[in-house]
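Researcher: Sequence recovery benchmark, item below. Answer with residues only.
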């Protein structure tokens, strides 16, 4: 299976799945997971006896409710009628931006439930509202809030139910179906199976509601065996079940990561597409299926609910394994969340638009920071480039054949015995020189650092971690957990342990400090790839760590599993940044992620297959990751497994070129497939696609600026762009790029000759390549889509900035001139923007930026048509104060003072101009042609600077 030269790894193959297919028996179904079984069984019982029972949870009488009329919220006790001696406390708090936080925990119990998930996800303590009006009566507490005072939160006391209303309409209901259940801590001795008696003519529910509610079997309360592993469950049952209903929203999105449709299908009820709930449990799934609710590498427990009049969301801050049933009902969606441990900590995001929800979520968990500009270029990866000379050779071939590329990657085989940081000197004798050879043409290297450490005392990283006592512990709580991964016997740093943080930072230093071992055989520019951080453990249950392993603070792995991978990327991000002084923007790619991971770099969709179906679902997964607040995403171009035929590879490069993160990668068993190896015409097609990506880097970078401020995703599906257009809510195979107005529909099927693009509006769209003006017929535009054609449209009303000189790498484009494509809308107007900065430092925070707004305004002529179009450039940084203390003559602006706008292409002028001149007077050279029903005006080199204000006047009469 392996290429020669790495015999040490052969042993590991024993632990790898042998058949080349998804191995369902490696992963639990709901029916194999005790708490999921219990949760689903409760839901089934509730459904059967819908009218004859109600939730056992209730709130104390209102006189005990600590609430002043204008406070942001309250804290109160909650009782469970089936466990009267168990105490729960509930907090309901309204944030300044209208987000409602609902927390519930068991108090004075036998143990403490894990309550730190939100702490890792959130960027800080949210500001609380000072403008809430509460009214309390015997049955409920009601808060009115929000800028329009149209939001209402109603907390019903008995049974406990929490409903968010807007304009009198129900938006989100918690425990409306009565499935809330927080299994309290108990001892094994005290925990007697509830008696399953039925009186004459009476049901269990009437005779013994506790037995009815919890089930009578104590199913998997105290241990659980799956395959050959037994989870000892020393704390007993502690699961949490909660129903969340969106009574008036027909579509739900999010809860990434699953290989499924963007608009999530039902998992239960008559319309169910799948038999299992969606699962969130970070897992390394070998050859995952392209259509399945099985959990993959990352988990973001955030769900958007959308209708033509409203978008809301829930963020359920839980870090343990969670299963989510979805049922599309009449007008809305019922969901049921079943988690293994943790407190209830739910945030209700009130919307009312998709954009508002993104802003609200960004307030909570932060945004993706502006990445290093080079990381938006093309990344060439493979498992593995086998030597320094291999890297040099690949770089030469890219140059010889004129393929732009920014980054070369090294997978695990660079590391001697898979001891990360340590070069295999036989194959990589000169790592720093190799890296510098790549950097000489302004390219970068990314090197993999996995979280498993080979347990060898001659491995300084393991040795030091062991001495510091910062490795994850086995269930005994003593010593070091040992499992198997690439290096063989391995241990894992516990990044929850504060003692590991400085140590991890020290490892990445490229100079030795205080005699500590550090990665001196690296450069400050090297990006880091964090893989296998679910964590992947080849001989562990479900290819991960046993749940009864112990982390810092005594928490079990089960409590923190879904956060674990985020902490690894978080500390790697900090470590990579700390190499540089003044700090530069680091690049980190992670496979595992959680809510908040967007703050620490990019993600990819893991080990996809080289099939058309995987290519297609990769787009949906990247869109879903955007919903989850994690926009810097992509899937492996070409598919990780298999040898894609050239047609597929070409189409896959288009998918990559229109993904925020654009990397080709391949499994060690695949044939080499670097683009220069392709035959014609495929080779030239891929070169054109790469050049197209590079020409559009200003569009991507400008989109990243926006997302770094607002949290609105870079790839925007129909429902985000046209929230009122119901016909678009299920569309997930076409999308807009940021606010640019570019609309792309990558081809993901073999032999396609044309595609039909859905258009939600009565607007003109222009073919990006031919300039042809299309007006949608029956809301569709049909575009030719042969292999050399990309279905790419510019929405009328947009101005697209590109740089069209082919270069070897993106930093070499810094002084290249701009072309502006001005796509007039139906009324003859357009707008766009471009954002530039040095692409690597944090100088933008000091206002070292160039941020221009472009506009085209038409003035009516004497007759019916347009008499004049004024095209102008204005300073957006000065207008918006978002980028700090801004000075138009800032250092960066001075450094690009020579950058011109070299061409204006105006689309949609129906008449030949009579003159084209700068407003300041100078006549310009131009050409006009009537193409299709719209004219194309090309203004040649207006010789205006991108940093300046200027205006071009096009007279038509
Ligand atoms: C699994 C990753 O998903 C894949 O991209 C990588 O090549 C292998 N691990 C080896 O590191």
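Model:
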């Amino acid at each position: 299976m392996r290429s020669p030269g790495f015999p040490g790894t052969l042993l590991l193959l024993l632990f790898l799945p042998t058949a080349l297919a998804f191995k369902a028996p490696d992963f639990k179904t709901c029916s194999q997971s005790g708490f999921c079984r219990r949760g689903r069984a409760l839901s089934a019982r509730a459904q059967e006896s819908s009218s004859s029972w109600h939730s056992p949870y209730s709130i104390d009488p209102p006189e005990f409710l600590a609430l002043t009329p204008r406070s942001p919220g309250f804290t109160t006790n909650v009782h469970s009628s089936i466990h009267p001696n168990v105490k729960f406390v509930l907090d309901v708090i309204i944030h300044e931006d209208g987000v409602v936080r609902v927390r519930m925990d068991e108090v004075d119990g036998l143990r403490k439930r894990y309550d730190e998930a939100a702490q890792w996800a959130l960027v800080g303590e949210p500001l609380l509202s000072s403008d809430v009006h509460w009214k309390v009566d015997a049955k409920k507490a009601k808060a009115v809030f929000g800028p329009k005072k149209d939001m209402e939160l109603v907390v019903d006391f008995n049974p406990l139910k929490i409903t968010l209303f807007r304009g009198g309409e129900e938006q989100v209901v918690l425990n409306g179906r009565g499935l809330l259940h927080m299994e309290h801590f108990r001892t094994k001795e005290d925990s007697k199976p509830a008696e399953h008696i039925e009186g004459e003519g009476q049901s269990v529910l009437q005779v013994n509601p506790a037995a009815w509610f919890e089930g009578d079997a104590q199913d998997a309360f105290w241990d659980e065996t799956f395959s050959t592993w037994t989870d000892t469950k020393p704390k007993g049952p502690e699961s949490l079940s909660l129903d969340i209903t969106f009574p008036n929203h027909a579509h739900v999105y999010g809860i990434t990561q699953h290989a499924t449709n963007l608009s999530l299908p039902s998992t239960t009820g008559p319309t169910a597409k799948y038999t299992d709930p969606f699962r969130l449990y970070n897992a390394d799934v070998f050859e995952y299926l392209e259509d399945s609710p099985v959990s993959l590498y990352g988990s973001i427990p955030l769900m958007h609910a959308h209708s033509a009049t409203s978008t809301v969301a829930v963020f359920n801050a839980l870090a343990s394994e969670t299963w989510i049933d979805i049922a599309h009902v009449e007008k809305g969606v019922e969901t049921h969340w079943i988690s293994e441990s943790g407190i209830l900590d739910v945030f209700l995001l009130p919307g009312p638009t998709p954009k508002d929800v993104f802003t609200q979520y960004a307030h909570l968990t932060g945004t993706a920071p502006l990445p290093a500009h080079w990381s938006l270029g093309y990344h060439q990866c493979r498992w593995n480039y086998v030597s320094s000379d291999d890297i040099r050779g690949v770089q030469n071939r890219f140059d010889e054949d004129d393929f732009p590329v920014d980054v070369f990657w090294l997978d695990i085989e660079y590391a001697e015995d898979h001891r990360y940081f340590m070069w295999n000197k036989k194959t990589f004798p000169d790592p720093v020189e190799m890296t510098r050879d790549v950097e000489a043409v302004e390219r970068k290297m990314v090197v993999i650092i996995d979280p498993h450490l080979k347990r060898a005392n001659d491995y300084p990283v393991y040795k030091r971690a062991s001495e510091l006592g910062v490795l994850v512990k086995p269930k005994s709580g003593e010593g070091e957990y040992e499992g198997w991964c690439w290096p063989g016997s391995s241990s894992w740093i516990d990044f929850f342990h504060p003692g590991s943080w400085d140590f991890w930072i020290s490892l990445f230093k490229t100079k030795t400090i205080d005699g500590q071992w550090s990665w001196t055989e690296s450069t400050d520019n090297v990006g880091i790839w964090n893989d296998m951080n679910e964590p992947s453990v080849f001989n562990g249950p479900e290819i991960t760590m046993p749940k009864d392993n112990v982390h810092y603070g005594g928490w079990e792995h089960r409590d923190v599993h879904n956060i674990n991978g985020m902490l690894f990327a978080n500390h790697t991000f900090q470590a990579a940044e700390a190499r540089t002084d003044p700090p530069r923007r680091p690049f980190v790619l992670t496979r595992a992620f959680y809510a908040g991971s967007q703050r620490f770099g990019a993600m990819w969709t893991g080990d996809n297959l080289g099939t058309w179906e995987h290519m297609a679902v990769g787009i949906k997964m990247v869109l879903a990751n955007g919903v989850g607040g994690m926009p810097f995403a992509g899937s492996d171009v070409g598919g990780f497994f298999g040898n894609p035929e050239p047609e597929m590879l070409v189409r896959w490069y288009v998918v990559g070129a229109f993904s925020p993160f654009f990397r080709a990668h391949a499994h060690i068993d695949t044939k080499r497939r670097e683009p220069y190896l392709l035959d014609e015409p495929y080779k030239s097609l891929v070169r054109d696609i790469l050049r197209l990506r590079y020409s559009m880097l200003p569009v991507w970078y400008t989109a990243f600026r926006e997302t770094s401020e607002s949290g609105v995703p870079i790839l925007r599906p129909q429902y985000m762009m046209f929230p009122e257009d119901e016909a678009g809510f299920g569309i997930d195979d076409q999308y807009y790029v940021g606010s640019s107005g570019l609309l792309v529909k990558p081809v993901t099927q073999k032999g396609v000759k044309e595609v039909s693009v859905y258009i939600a509006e009565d607007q003109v769209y222009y073919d990006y390549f031919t300039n042809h003006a299309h007006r949608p017929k029956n809301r569709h535009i049909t575009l030719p889509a042969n292999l050399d054609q990309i279905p790419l449209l510019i929405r009328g009303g947009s101005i697209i900035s590109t740089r069209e000189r082919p270069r070897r790498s993106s930093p070499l484009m810094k002084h290249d001139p701009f072309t502006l494509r001005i796509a007039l809308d139906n009324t003859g107007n357009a707008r766009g923007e471009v954002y530039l900065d040095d692409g690597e430092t944090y100088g933008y925070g000091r206002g070292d930026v160039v941020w221009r707004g472009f506009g085209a305004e038409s003035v009516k002529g004497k007759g019916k048509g347009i008499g004049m179009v004024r095209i102008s450039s204005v300073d957006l940084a000065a207008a918006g104060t978002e980028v700090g203390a801004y000075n138009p003559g800032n250092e960066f602006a001075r450094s690009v003072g020579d950058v011109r706008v070299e061409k204006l292409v105006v689309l949609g002028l129906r008449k030949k101009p009579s003159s084209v001149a700068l407003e300041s007077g100078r006549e310009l050279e131009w050409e006009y042609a009537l193409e299709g029903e719209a004219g194309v005006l090309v203004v040649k080199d207006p010789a205006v600077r991108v940093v300046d204000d200027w205006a071009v006047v096009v007279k038509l009469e």
